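To make this tangible, this section ends with a sequence with its structure tokens:
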Amino acid sequence: MPTTTTTHSPPPPLPPPQTFDILPTLTHILTLLLPTNTNNPSSPPTNNPTVDPKDLIPELNALKLKIQKARQAIAGLPDVERSVEEQEGEIEWLVRRVKGGRDVLRALGEGGVGDGTG
């Protein structure tokens, strides 16, 4: 029975984790919006934000850009368009294939192949 060999190219490198880390930017924006009371730290905060809303536009644009880059990075990952069921089916097939290969190797090992007696 002829066997076919397929060569798989290595998967593309994963994007760096910083691509998906939007929390520092979001935290920075939220801290800008938090009210502060510099006169008396023990008094309740006022409703006056620490930044003018128009000054938030560059911060929000930076956050939006990070989210867009993360989406693009995810879209560029291999098999991202495949469903979970498709991927699980392939995993099951690969597990069966590996098990079959191990069974063949075990049978060859038990048969004394390569022990010098022949």
The mean pLDDT is 81. The two ends are 25 Å apart (CA to CA).
